[in-house]
Each structure stands twice: as C-alpha cells, then as structure tokens.
Write a structure and sequence with these properties.
The protein has 460 residues and is α+β, with helices and mostly antiparallel strands. 31% of the residues lie in helices and 27% in strands. The strands form three sheets. Strands 12-13-9-8-1-2-3-7-4-21 form a ten-stranded mixed beta sheet, sandwiched between helices. Strands 5, 6, 15, 16, 17, 18, 19 and 20 form an eight-stranded antiparallel beta sheet that branches. It has a three-stranded antiparallel beta sheet with strand order 10-11-14, covered by helices on one side. A hairpin with a 5-residue loop joins strand 12 and strand 13.
C-alpha cells in the first residue's frame, strides 16, 4: 500500500439521497471505489417475507443515476449490499432491474455481479442436522418446522463474495443480505489494507454522515485506509468530524462499543485512538482484527396472524387525567365484549390499546405526577387467526369508542374516530423467525454469483 485507499460512502442507505456535488468532491480526493449499504432489518420483517423494498423505485433510481454515472466516468467500482432493503433474491432482482434501466439511460455497459444469499430450506435442514446451526441469545435450538414456516431466509454475507466479484472484474456489484461493514470493507481488503483499519473504517462509515459532528449537513463520508489506520471526513465541505462523533458510531446497533462480530472475525477497537487531524478530518489508529471460525447469521421471516386496527382521538380532560385507569378499564371491557358477543369462535384473539401521546412507544406506565397530555390517539389493534375474525372483533368493540365513561353517573364523554369506516384491515403480522448462525468452512458455500456483462450482451 503505497497510497491510502479512498472509498466514497455516499449515503447511509441507497435511496436515502446521494448528493452529486459530494460524489464529485470524493472523486477529486482520489476515491477509487463507491460503496453503499441498501437495507437492513431495521424496518421490520415484512420486506424479507414479501421480497419488497421499503424505498420506492424512484428514490433508488435517482441515487443510482448519480452513482453509476460517476463510477463509469471515473472507471471505479460501485458496490451495493443488502439490495432492496432485505437482501432476498426478489430484492436483488428488483435492484438489478433498476440498474439495467439506468445503464440503458446513461449508455453505459458495466459488468454486473449479482450476489444471492437467499437459502434453500433443504440445505439449512441438512446443516441443522449436522449440528452446524446454533442459536443466538435469547433464541433456542432451531427446529425444521421453523425453517418451513419462513417465507424467505437469507444468510448475511461477509466480504469474501465481494472480494471474488471484484477480482473477476465487476464494475457494479449488487449484493443480497450482507453485513453493513462488509460492503464497505471489501475493496480496501482486496487492495491490501490491514483488516483492523478496514473493518473499523467500514463500521464508522456505514451510515454515511451519521458519524459527522453535524448530521443534518450532507449525506456521505470519505474513508481513507492506510497501513496503520484510517481517516474519515464528510463529503460536504461545510461539515466536519470530531473524535466524539466518530468514536460514538461504534455504539450504533452494537451492544459493545469496543467489539464488533463479523463473519470470520472480530473487530476489537479497545486500543483505538481518535485524533483530530485537521478541522474536518479524524484519524484513527490501533484497531485490531482477530480471526475466528466462519459463521453467517441467518434471518428468516414469515407471515403470521391477522390484524384490524382503529384510530380514535381523545381530548376529554377527565379521561386524560386518568389515562392509565381508562386504558385498563376499556381493555377489560373490550375483552369481555368479545367473549360475550363472539364467544369461542374468536379463538385465541388479542386486543391492545396503544395510547399515542402517553405511553404507546414503550408501553410503560409514566411516572407518578406526569402531567396529562392535551390529547391522545388510541390505536386499537385486534389480532386473530383470520382477517375476517380480526375485523369482527373490531366491529364488536367499535361502539365503546363513542362514549365509554371513566366516571359513572356523569355526563358522557365523546371521542372521535379518525376514519369511516373505522376498522382498517392491516393484513398479516410479519415477524422474524430466526436468530441463528450457520458455521461454514467455505465463505462462498451459501452464496450464488450471477453475471450480467452488458458489453458482451450488446456485442451479441
């Protein structure tokens, strides 16, 4: 490594809004790759279970126009991981189609590597039977029935499939489910960067400008990795990094700010030192990498039971002064109403009342003395084995949201439904079913690579 390896991280997630001027700045600083994450589990299980993206195609396409144009002009690779939000095969193909459309528009003919990490259920059952799949806390051993219940299962890739694709000349890589850091670390690892600085730089930069001191200014960062450490600076020249903003990002989605577990190793930043190099740039040295047996985390999602919801607004001051009591009394009354009017046909139903403006996010009772809110929105949620039954439960409960009193023998309060009809069928409940890792001897064993070389297709 005679020169630092500079990588543009344009945004925290493809589709979040790359900035063309920032990309130009990164190129002017000598960047030799563009790498970005495109999803995660953050937005819930539905995107894996359904094979769909949270982002709309227009926002992803907009970012790809900027990034593909810059990468083609500079002749540097564009690396994308966890495509289409969840990284399943459908998500990868959705992103592929947008990339091909943008390539036609720009008149470029890249060599594209598609990395698929969705898993065959028979393969996983065989691994499970061989004792190669183990649970992560607090999950228990994996049952074959759980594998069967999943609509889609992915294994989170490390850097190795990206290294292989880059070695084989990929101009664009569209990867399935991948650790955020592997997407950013792979190019530096390929070109001889020490593993400690490469993985640490990737962790710091994974969310783009979130590691900067002014997170509202700009979208991306530039990481420069060398023999002894790395540097990080914002792509927006009006922003800056400082040691606190950089070091703090080790806490992002990580229970231990000094240790990060990745496929095939552990990043240890216990000895890392963060120094302000200049007004905008932080330098980091002392990051260490320890190899360990290779594992890939498994993520599986499925559709469960069905829900119907209603939204009701409350401004009555008497009720607002006794919200906890109102919640408990209303919930008990609604459950009794369903048991009396629907009976055993309701099955193993569940009703929840989420008091937005009071404690809906945590569900915890506020501390004594907490002032009453000005108003609350009550989200009624009925869960049942079928959509029809969830809606019938909502209809049975509906009348009580007109005037249910908190104090008897007083003037009745009135509440307001947000919509009419009040009941909204939400559909199935999607949930993650796997929290396990699979042990592997070969990092490529569960990955499939498909190539699309537009230059050859055009020639044919």
């Amino acid at each position: 490594m005679d020169q630092p390896i500079r990588i543009i991280v344009p945004t925290g997630s493809l589709g979040a809004g790359a900035v063309e001027a920032e990309i130009e700045y990164g190129l002017s600083r000598g960047a030799t790759a563009i790498a970005t994450d495109a999803g995660s589990t953050d937005s819930g299980a539905a995107y894996l279970a359904l094979g769909m993206s949270k982002n709309n195609s227009g926002s992803v396409r907009r970012d790809l126009v900027i990034l593909m144009k810059a990468a083609a002009r500079a002749r540097i690779p564009l690396i994308i991981g966890t495509a289409g939000q969840a990284g399943g095969d459908k998500n990868v193909d959705w992103t592929r189609d947008i990339v091909l459309d943008v390539a036609r528009e720009l008149g470029v003919k890249p060599k594209i590597a598609l990395l698929y990490s969705e898993q065959d259920k028979a393969t996983l059952k065989a691994k499970n039977a061989a004792g190669k799949i183990r649970p992560l806390e607090p999950s228990g051993p994996l049952a074959d029935a759980t594998i069967d219940d999943c609509a889609h299962i992915v294994a989170a890739m490390g850097a190795e499939p990206y290294l292989a694709a880059l070695k084989d000349g990929a101009d664009i890589i569209i990867g399935g489910r991948t650790t955020d850091t592997a997407v950013l670390a792979c190019f530096a690892l390929l070109h001889g960067a020490p593993a400690g600085p490469a993985w640490h730089a990737a962790k710091i930069a994974e969310c783009g400008a979130q590691c900067t001191a002014q997170t509202g200014i700009g979208a991306g960062v530039l990481i420069s990795i060398d023999k002894t450490g790395f540097e990080v600076e914002p792509l927006n020249v009006a922003n800056y990094c400082d040691p606190h903003s950089v070091s703090a990002h080790m806490l992002y989605e990580n229970s231990n700010p000094f240790v990060l577990v990745e496929p095939g190793g552990v990043l240890d930043v216990t000895k890392a030192e963060y120094v302000q190099k200049d007004a905008r740039t932080v330098r980091v040295e002392g990051s260490e990498w320890r190899t360990q047996p290779y594992t890939m985390k498994l993520e599986g999602a499925s559709a469960g039971r069905f829900q119907t919801v209603m939204l009701i607004g409350i401004q009555d001051p008497v009720v607002l002064r006794q919200l906890d009591a109102f919640h408990d009394a209303m919930l008990a009354t609604l459950n009794e109403r369903v048991r009396k009017t629907i009976g055993s046909a309701a099955g193993d139903f569940h009703i929840s009342l989420r008091m937005y403006g009071w404690n809906a996010v945590s569900g915890d009772k506020p501390a004594p003395g907490t002032p009453p809110p000005r108003e609350v929105g009550v989200l009624f949620v009925a869960t049942a084995d079928t959509q029809e039954m969830a809606t019938q439960i909502a209809k049975a409960c509906n009348p009580y949201f007109f005037h249910f009193p908190i104090e008897r023998d007083k003037e009745l309060p009135s509440y307001g439904f947000a919509f009419t009809p009040a009941d909204i069928e939400r559909g199935p409940v999607y949930e993650f079913r796997l929290n396990h890792v699979v042990e592997l001897d070969d990092p490529m064993e569960l990955v499939r690579t498909v190539w699309i070389d537009l230059s050859k297709l055009e020639a044919a």
